[in-house]
Specification:
about 280 residues; alpha+beta; Multidrug-efflux Transporter Regulator, Chain: A, Domain 2; 4-stranded mixed beta sheet; two-stranded antiparallel ribbon; about 60% helix; globular; MerR HTH family regulatory protein; DNA-bd_dom_put_sf; DNA-binding
């Protein structure tokens, strides 16, 4: 497709495999640059198709729409495409990345690095095994490194994640319930519509973004309140000024295995034992 191609919004949507409502939503959020105007008709070209492909790739890497908008703005100001896509630096938070013994020992002491730890982390979905090698989500690696730096034992970290996952499952079920009760009935009445599946997908993407923002904001408030309660309990707060607690966003859900197949293997005891034995052999002079 040439740069001077003139596509209507319907043609652009068909080319990108998206509903027109998503195209308009991307424009509103600054993810898609404005089209050329011919009278009252908007005309799009190959640059818009390329931009939609970039947005899709970044979503698959685990970036939220607001984060993608910032990355695109940075690229438009001169950042390299590879940097924006995470090809030359750190990628998306939900990428599955291979982990070696060196990285594991930065997370877990030699004393705690046992097969049962691998089994539990695998059952919890924190580790995936491909061809006898472990893969870990980047956000899990980063979070685990941070908590290890605070001298938290691995068992405590896994216990905390297990409790957290119960809560996040409940939150997800609540949002899905809202979708099913409020939004789905309107879509179900349009069962014969050609773009029904695309509309459902677009609405689920938007609901995910909304849910992420709500959960992140509520979590920041809860952490702020809990931290202040803790500080008051231990007489850590100054009397003349309020504390300033910084908040952090949470990762979105997506999956991408770097150098691995789409369907992970079930970790066998032999895989874990072999991985540990090979790692020990590599470090033996």
């Amino acid at each position: 497709m040439g740069r001077d191609a003139a596509l209507t919004v319907e043609q652009l949507a068909a080319e990108a495999g998206l509903p027109t409502s998503t195209i308009r939503m991307y424009q509103t959020r600054g993810l898609l640059h404005p089209p050329r105007r011919e009278g009252r008709t908007a005309r799009y070209d190959s640059s818009h198709v390329e931009r939609l492909g970039l947005v899709n790739r970044l979503q698959q890497r685990g970036f939220s729409l607001p984060a993608i908008a910032e990355l695109i703005a940075a690229r438009d100001l001169g950042a390299r495409v590879g940097d924006v896509l995470g090809l030359t630096g750190q990628g998306g938070p939900d990428d599955w990345v291979p982990v070696g013994m060196r990285e594991l020992r930065a997370l877990v002491s030699v004393r705690d690095l046992r097969p049962q730890l691998f089994r539990r982390a695998s059952r919890m979905g924190l580790i995936r095994w491909e061809r006898g090698k472990p893969f870990v989500r980047r956000w899990a690696m980063d979070s685990g490194t941070a908590m290890t730096g605070m001298a938290m034992p691995p068992r405590e970290i896994l216990d905390a994640f297990e409790r957290l996952r119960v809560q996040t499952d409940r939150i997800a079920a609540d949002f899905v319930d809202v979708f099913e009760r409020v939004i789905w009935p309107r879509l179900a009445d349009q069962a014969g519509s050609d773009d029904q599946l695309d509309r459902v997908r677009a609405l689920l993407v938007e609901l995910t973004e909304t849910a992420q923002g709500v959960v992140a904001g509520a979590l920041r408030d809860s952490i702020r309140d809990s931290a202040e309660t803790f500080a008051r309990k231990h007489n850590l707060l100054p009397e003349d000024r309020p504390p300033a607690w910084a908040g952090h966003t949470v990762p979105v859900l997506a999956e991408r295995l770097e150098g691995a197949a789409a369907h992970p293997d079930e970790p066998a005891d032999a895989d874990i034992d072999r991985f540990l034995a090979e790692a020990d052999a590599e470090e033996t002079p």
